[in-house]
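Reopening closed ticket. The problem is back. First fold of the pair:
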Amino acid sequence: MTMIRKHLYFITLFLSLFLVQQGFAQTKAVPKKESSGRLFNDTTATDSDYLMAIEKAGEVLESAYNDTDFEGSTFHLFGEMKRTESKLELILSSLKGANPNVRNQQMYRLVLQEIQQELDEQNKAINERNGHLEEIKKRVIDLRKDKTLITLLRDTIRRKQFKKEFADLKKRYIATDSLMTKNQSVLNNKKRLTVQRKISVSNALVTVEGKLEKSGISIFNKEYPSLWQTSDSAVKKKIAHNIKAKIIIEENVAAYYLGYKAGGLITLCFFMGILFWYISRNIKYLKENGHSKNLSQFNFKYLNRGVLIPIVVIALNIAVVTNLYAPALFLELLQLALLGALTVLFKNQWSGVAMRNWLMLLALFFALCFLDLFITIGLLQRCAFIAINVLGIRYGLVQIKTLEEQLYIKRFFKWASILFIGLNGLSILYNLFGRVSLSNMLSLTAFISLTQIVALSVLLKIFLEIILLQIYTTRVKRGIEKMFDYESLSDTLKKPFIIVISYMWLIVIASNLNIWESLRAAIQKLLSHPNTIGSITFTLGNIVLFFIIIWMAHLLQNYVAYFFGEIDDENEENINKRQHSKLLITRLVVLIAGYLLAVAASGMPLDKLSILLGALGVGVGLGLQNVVNNFVSGIILIFDKPIQIGDVVEISSESGRVKSMGLRTTKINAPNGAEIIIPNGNLLSQNITNWTYTDNFKLVEITFEINGETIPEEINAIVNETLLKLPLVNNSKTSQIYYSAISDGKYKLLIKFWCSIYRTEETISSARQELYSSFKEKGLTFSS
């Protein structure tokens, strides 16, 4: 019995005295004389005061009962504890029966660490509820401080008067005490189970860490006897039974992990569904408008054969990289599914020899996975691994070249081939000397390094095809069917993607070698170490993050044009000035947001930032006036829009078409092919003639003489009919005919008409030729 229960017992003695004729010595009432001043001088409690005291005690006991009862959050806690127990039992049973491969041990360690954290949180929650019960008991104990209630308990006569009320009070107390005892017992049992589970988790973590240490790269610490000292006495029936048991264990672990990561996998499928819809919509638009055949001109290898398989390849690549600590069965099923999807893509594109060699690689990888997962380490498994390693080395020296010829990026495949051969050779060496866990790990890493670089090469090509499809579809929607230089554009776009896929490949390899966690921890420690220069404290990670964000901001502002369908060889007549203005604003927003985010990520304090801005202000005052002037002028030009990309302008002695507008300079293509770079500050400080501010048409004129017998009305009719036939002339605007001289048989004319400013010379030349032919047919002489 706890101390609190003793206190409650003490209270219940008081509450039950009125039911027992023995107990307290009866207190004799001292008679008092009634006087006229009793109303003001008598301090004796009245019946009303006693009733209020009893009611107050009843309310305390009632609230104590309600607060003692478990709420929904407590039952939710018990449910979490049950789920934690199920996870722990699964992991503990798997530790006993599963093969000690690195993948499973990494997943076990991760799950055990999470279970350990869950148990700490659950233990904390139980302690909080125990503390809550202690507070409730204290409220009941505080009833002893109620003097009115104590006085009533001592007065036997009064107790009889409130017999019914005291009976109800006692009933409430007994119910509260019973519930409190029950719930406290439940919490104590839960706490005891939590402590036992924490001990089990600690022991399991020690076991897992020990098995992971055995996979460390050291040839001097034997894990098993050398191969020539090993004898395999296993019976075939036992092997079959062992395989069946291990399959069940691996299935349970994989099923648990699948449920554990269900949310992330569903999210990935959702985004892949959006990407599938987006690509299908673009392809459907091109088919409906008769442009789908042009996709073959872009050297598409995958999107022109369907959308589903390329999307599956993207999803599986992402799933492999984002599930570094998945159990071996789950991850190897992902790998095999990815290789199967690649096989479907390669089926009708690769040569017969390359396809056979690819299928052989898949067969070796499948055999390796089966041996690693379901065959107990012994002579049979070790000899089979050595056989696969030997075949792998031969494959890397002889047959792998046929695969390299089919890939988009061959430079990385060369290094992956060297790594593949080297890891297979090391695996044989470690296997011979008894380092079996390390040998198995190196074998799997060798095959994964090779197959993963193939998958990532395909991933890069699919991404580039998606971007080219987006650019071409956008241009077709704008009425621009002209093909562009997709090869140089692909070379430009693939550079940042190569960095991303290199990172993906490296973390997959490092994770398979069981060095990613320690490598990541070391890098994180290096990047997060505080450094101090003067009064400024910074970390290397903040500086690296600062430059990465700025690099990404500049990269995005350069590449964002491609998503608008804009490229450098834009058709000047079909240029969309409004879209270009939106593009410039988007680039400006991306840059500003990138710089602000970079400053925030750098962790620089605002007071230090104000000092930096002050120093920048001094720099502006001393020598950066022109730079700041051009920058601000660029922003004004973007929003004020006196000129836009595609406009034909004249600035001082320079004229030409605006090619591009930046935050510092504007580029103009001169008619002679020169590119004129003008600072934005100069544009705002000079008069600008913009020929295309309102539209793209220019009023041009032709002067000529007509000799022959005719009248002005006939000349006017011939001119108007001729201009109507010319497609380059804008006949929506009325042409103008002026006579500078009229005499018998001789007329001097000035004709003004509208045409595209981009094709002025061509239109004037065509007009002169057609007018000459028209007047000659009428027997008139034409000279200009």
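Second fold of the pair, where the issue appears:
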Amino acid sequence: MKKKAIALIAAACSLAMALGGCGSSSSSTSGSSNGGKVIITAFGSEPQNPLIPGNTNETGGGRPVELMFARLVSFDNKGNAKNEVAQSIKPNADSSEYTITLKKGWKFTDGTPVTAESFTKAWSYTANAKNAQKCASFFSTIKGYDDLQKDGLKGDEQLSGLKVVDDYTFTVTMNQPDATFPVKVGYEGFSPLPESFYKDPKAFGEKPVGNGPYKFSSWDHNKQIVLVKNPDYKGNVKVNNDGVTFKIYTSTDSAYADVQSGNLDVMDSVPATATKTFQSDPNVEAYNKAGSVSQTFTIPSDLDHFKSNTEEGVLRRQAISMAINRKTIVDKVLGGVGTPAKEFTSPMTPGYSDSLKGESNLEYNPKKAKELWAKADAISKYDGTLTFSYNADGGAKPIYDAVVNQLKNNLGIKAATNPVPTFQEFRTDVSNRTIKGAFRTGWQPDYPSPENYLYQLYDSAAADNQGSNDGDYKNPAFDKLMDQAYAATSTEAANKIYQQAQEILLNDLPAIPLYYGNAYGVAAKGVKNFTMNWQNQPVYSELSK
């Protein structure tokens, strides 16, 4: 999440959300049952990992982590950045060095102060390969990152590009210009950490200590994560309730039924069975607007007959993409709560274009698909079964049933689904590289920039479990364009370079874009201020009742 790989595709799949059907429908969610306090119950999924910001890149953990940790900047509901813990973030002339000054008075929930070292040590820990953190690649443009990827590290080595000037000032020297850095630091992977973290990271992950609008209360695994309002928080986020409890579900249908009955307050998706009816359902408050989540499936770049650096592999990837009727899936399976994909970011992203070179590879063309598949078979005959793995607790079944049926009908190949029971198990399989076929992927942006979709998912630096490049795609030409975009002198110039980079992706198809998930979900009757933000997530802090 966050972050993130989308927890699941909930139902129609919106964005991540691992659904859990085990939310208790017997417990009342009314304010009166909580001593007069307003506690919001929200749909959640069991996090893949302990709740450590630098090791959280999916929405099961991302939802609570986002609320518990404040970064240098925060984003409003539309994705605009505003200084949060930072007093100022000042670049030099070519954005190769930044001087960051912190606001005084920030504290972690254990009472210790948030200082410059709270950031520099946390960032270095996350970047250090010895610590195997999921968000490591986000720090790759900071000087010293490559040194922290070497063998033989202890885990406490620091990024050489980070220098503490005093308790409230530090400098960041980049190994290359990075104009997106002042926005990127709003991502949860850039959260500060208290000294207590380093004494026992494992224990910390079970009972995290943050500095955000909410603080940790309890985590009953596979049942719920309880957060309460942080009375010492004085940042940009306005908190209208006394706490948020994430109920962990394994079924979107169960969660939706709980919203209908008033036993769950908010859900950032709806089950496939309700996508056509939720907006007219009198028992819920519905939300459905254009969103920023990209839904794809990834074929490992080293999969036999599908290797992304071979002619055969590229032909097969293009054939598969052209054999899929995205509009039919959006209309018939998703009930219209999505938009067929045209590229690798989203319509909500600066620099988005629906007419890039190679976009035709995402258009339904079964005749050409068969021709391309035949060309690939002429190189090396393939008679295996292509499997599609997905988490069964997220409502993705009808989507991948449709994909498999279309490939069978339009290409005449053998294809099958391979559901994995829970999102946590599924993401573990992805991380361990044990899936020998295609697998569902999705991305909820961490910050509003094409870089977040492109570099973090497809650059070589984010491969091999150093980031979120789950298919381990590597293309030097693409990597070079990423470097050029970082050095661009304006957002407009960078966006043009990102478009060039996308043209490489549209040819190679390391992942195959299916659709953009709308920001959609439901709230129980009586819940006030229900809206969703630029990440397709409910604005939990604004909810009341």
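Update: turned out to be a display glitch only; the data is intact. The first helix runs from residue 59 to 68. The first strand starts at residue 39 and ends at 44. Please close again.
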